[in-house]
UniProtKB/TrEMBL annotation:
Gene Ontology terms for molecular function: 2 iron, 2 sulfur cluster binding; electron transfer activity; flavin adenine dinucleotide binding; metal ion binding; oxidoreductase activity
Obligatory cofactor(s): FAD; [2Fe-2S] cluster
UniProt keyword Chaperone, yes or no: no
Positions that bind FAD: 52-55, 67-69, 74-75
Cofactor: how and how many bound: Binds 1 FAD per subunit. Binds 1 [2Fe-2S] cluster per subunit.
The protein's name: Dihydroorotate dehydrogenase B (NAD(+)), electron transfer subunit
Keywords from the named record: 2Fe-2S, Electron transport, FAD, Flavoprotein, Iron, Iron-sulfur, Membrane, Metal-binding, Pyrimidine biosynthesis, Transmembrane, Transmembrane helix, Transport
Function: Responsible for channeling the electrons from the oxidation of dihydroorotate from the FMN redox center in the PyrD type B subunit to the ultimate electron acceptor NAD(+).
Residues reported to bind [2Fe-2S] cluster: 215, 220, 223, 235
Domain of life: Bacteria
Length: 248
């Protein structure tokens, strides 16, 4: 059973209308790998009672970072937390992305960037990144991403002078005709469904799924996802799966 840690907030910065970067002091005991997640609990509050899962966006000595979108009650309350407040954190949980041997393709849909940034940073200049957002102002960490990726392609659903107009899977189809590199992806379910149509049967494609969770540790079956071998728990069997295994 993972321990609960009381962690001090270093910053909780608003990046866009509804996206925040939360940086907290990381207890030395936490060793993480890209693709894993933590459960964050809003301290003494009874409402919301359950912790919320967030991918580890980045983890450096003494600091662990989460990138989150305000969705409902929990994340709205989280967005009001300030520097020097405390939060209760547990983890890391879940299966991580198997490490790439050479170059690899990353597909990030919107806030899905939160799950794949750490992987690209861990293997700098090896990722061909395909990053899809709705509009220009939602493009996050442009300079940092250029720094850590080999090549970067951005798609926006709304017109923007320097991006591909359309959905990110279309951009992948256009640019990746001859590439058979392993793919690592995270994004909304609709993006994963499209991606499944693009991936060749011979191509390795790891995706992080973000089902709703309750216990986070495999006990409640609140997070199951359908696979070729029956239902699996996202919190312990995932969140990273080979897309060919999933019935999307
Ligand atoms: C393994 C994992 C990693 C995640 N990593 C991140 C991350 O790095 N950054 C981030 O912003 N979010 C992430 N999520 C999603 C995040 O946990 C939810 O957005 C959050 O729990 C919503 O809590 P809330 O109290 O604000 O919303 P609630 O009040 O619980 O729900 C509000 C709305 O959000 C929707 N919602 C709730 N949970 C999810 C979910 N898991 N996926 C999609 N929609 C949801 C609900 O359907 C509802 O419409 C992750 C989820 C999982 C399972
Ligand atoms: S959240 Fe309880 S089993 Fe996954």
């Amino acid at each position: 059973m993972n321990k609960l840690f009381r962690a001090k907030i270093i910053k909780n910065e608003q990046l866009t209308k509804d996206i925040y970067l939360l940086c907290v002091e990381s207890p030395d005991e936490i060793q993480s790998k890209p693709g894993q997640f933590c459960l964050l609990k809003l301290n003494q509050r009874l409402d919301p009672l359950l912790s919320r899962p967030f991918s580890i966006f980045d983890h450096v000595s003494g600091e662990i970072k989460f990138l989150y979108r305000v969705k409902g009650k929990g994340t709205r309350i989280l967005s009001t937390f300030k520097k020097d407040d405390y939060i209760t954190l547990s983890g890391p949980f879940g299966r991580w992305y198997p490490f790439p041997q050479g170059d690899f393709i990353v597909i990030a849909g919107g806030i899905g960037l939160a799950s794949v940034y750490y992987l690209m940073k861990r293997f700098p200049k090896r990722a061909y990144l395909f990053y899809g957002v709705r509009e220009e102002r939602e493009i996050l960490f442009y300079d940092e991403l250029r720094e850590i990726t080999k090549e970067m392609y951005i798609s926006t659903e709304m017109e923007c002078p320097y991006t591909y107009k359309g959905i990110v899977t279309e951009l992948v189809k256009e640019k990746c005709k001859n590439l058979s590199l392993p793919i690592y992806a995270c994004g909304p379910m609709v993006m994963l469904k499209e991606l499944k149509k693009v991936v060749k049967e011979s191509q390795v494609c790891y995706v992080a799924t973000e089902e709703r969770m309750a216990c986070g540790v495999g006990a409640c079956l609140g997070c199951v996802i359908e696979t070729k071998e029956g239902f699996k728990r996202v919190c312990t069997d995932g969140p990273v799966f080979d897309i060919r295994e999933l019935l999307l």
